[in-house]
Write a structure and sequence with these properties.
With 442 residues, this protein is an alpha/beta fold. It is built from twelve helices and 20 strands. The structure holds iron/sulfur cluster.
Length: 442
């Protein structure tokens, strides 16, 4: 079986600091989508030239860079200021794949997906598979490392993207800081295994804003807490040191939100899955986290119907859900992933049994989620504004408990104040269904 390929993108950025911010946002988004960066043209599957068109010399330099990319690679997208004059570019380089103007990073990312597509791996994809929904400007995914040192049997990430390779904390924080300066109000920290951040570089010291930090999950949370933005942690495995960041959540330095892909609760299934960490004490720890930080939201994903999963294993999972009362949960029916070792395991679960278990799982979680949402009626929640409905009558927002694209929304029908995307305002919750809240702003 072939391993999936991770396309590589080369980026050349010319021009002013604003163009650099566009390039950084393109890179941030590409990293979160699973692309790798190529340091040279030859090794890239596609090249982006972010141009400058302000002075004649800058235009010449931009055209020269496009020419070089065309010669050495041939698959070239042009963006930036000179992109506002597509005829100038087309005249010299009729075969460029696409041309966009400045600050159109969404269009650039879209074109990269079109010309160098990436295969999806739904059990482990970091960003939800929602067609090609691009990140609005008020929130951004921040990828802190690439690859993974684990060997989960249903996953091909380590063979596709290699072992864990962490970006030094100072580099991650500079990117985060620039995103916040460019208007981002919420940062979503992602990697394949966020709590393992820095292990590969022995938690190397790194400097940011004149202070020394270790390249480590705890220090990252501490540094991110200094930013004027919501910070949401995804793909955190429940290693013991995760307990140390809960007080920072209680103090509102980072959002009281943890996305932990548990995948199952039966030790036998987890062993077959080759998952890192131990499940036995996890329920106890979750209760402690809630004692320390009562507002914490726990999100997770699970796989039902994994090869060898018995009725007993499944019942164990259902009982565990009852016990830990997770706030947000996604569930997949197991299916073989090309190249994953789980395909060769014995005792594959028949499709009708998978289907039955999935429905039972979803019904249970829906009940838990509905009760949790009901309990929020009457409370006031800080919410970030995402936009308005098509008819313009309802404001779409999210509370601290809702990650964009994967969790619920807060719909505001009655808002006395003018608001814009990215504003954070207190909302009085007046109603709820299984996944969403409804509220008003006085
Ligand atoms: S932790 Fe497991 S599932 Fe996640 S990327 Fe690593 S090997 Fe894959």
């Amino acid at each position: 079986m072939n391993a999936l390929k991770q396309p590589k993108v080369g980026i050349v950025s010319l021009g002013c600091p604003k163009a650099l911010v566009d390039s950084e946002r393109i890179i941030t988004k590409l990293r979160s989508d699973g692309y790798a960066l190529s340091p040279d043209y030859a090794g890239a599957d596609i090249v982006v030239v972010n141009t400058c068109g302000f002075l004649d010399s800058a235009r010449d330099e931009s055209l020269e860079a496009i020419g070089e990319a065309m010669n050495q690679n041939g698959k070239v997208l042009v963006t930036g200021c000179l992109g506002a004059e597509p005829e100038v570019i087309r005249q010299k380089f009729p075969n460029v794949l696409g041309i966009t103007g400045p600050h159109q990073y969404e269009a650039v990312v879209s074109a990269i997906h079109e010309h160098a597509p990436i295969e999806k791996n739904k059990f482990v994809d970091l960003v939800p598979e929602a067609g090609l929904k691009l990140t609005p400007r008020h929130y951004a995914y921040l990828k802190i490392s690439e690859g993974c040192n684990n060997k989960c049997s249903f996953c091909i990430i380590p063979s596709m993207r290699g072992l864990l390779s962490s970006r030094p904390l100072g580099e991650v924080m500079t990117e985060a800081d620039n995103l916040v300066k460019s208007g981002v109000k919420e940062l979503l920290v992602i990697s394949q295994d966020t709590s393992a951040y820095g292990q590969d570089i022995k938690y190397a010291q790194s400097q940011w804003r004149d202070k020394e930090y270790r390249t480590k999950f705890y220090d990252l949370c501490e540094a991110m807490g200094e930013l004027d933005a919501w910070v949401r942690m995804h793909y955190v495995y429940p290693y013991p040191h995760v307990d140390e960041v809960i007080p920072m959540m209680a103090q509102n330095k980072i959002l009281p939100y943890l996305d932990i892909p548990f995948q199952h609760a039966s030790p036998a299934v987890l062993k077959n899955m080759k998952r890192p960490g131990k499940i036995e004490k996890t329920a106890e720890r979750i209760h402690k986290w809630r004692d320390m930080c009562p507002d914490i939201t726990l999100r997770s994903t699970f796989i039902v119907g994994f090869p060898g999963e018995t009725d007993k294993d499944f019942d164990m999972l259902m009982d565990w859900l009852d016990e830990v009362q997770l706030d947000r949960v996604g569930c997949f029916k197991y299916e073989d992933v090309r190249g994953a070792t789980s395909a060769a395991l014995d005792n594959h679960v028949p499709e009708d049994v998978k289907e039955e278990r999935w429905h039972a799982f979803m019904a249970k979680q829906q009940e838990i989620s509905a009760a949790k949402m009901q309990a929020k009626i009457g409370s006031t929640q800080d919410c970030i504004i995402d936009g308005v409905t098509e008819d313009g009558k309802t404001i779409i927002a999210r509370s601290k408990a809702d990650a964009p694209e994967i969790d619920g929304n807060v719909f505001i029908n009655n808002c006395a104040k003018p608001v814009t995307q990215g504003d954070i305002i207190p909302v009085k919750i007046t109603d709820a269904d299984e996944y969403d809240l409804f509220g008003e702003v006085s």
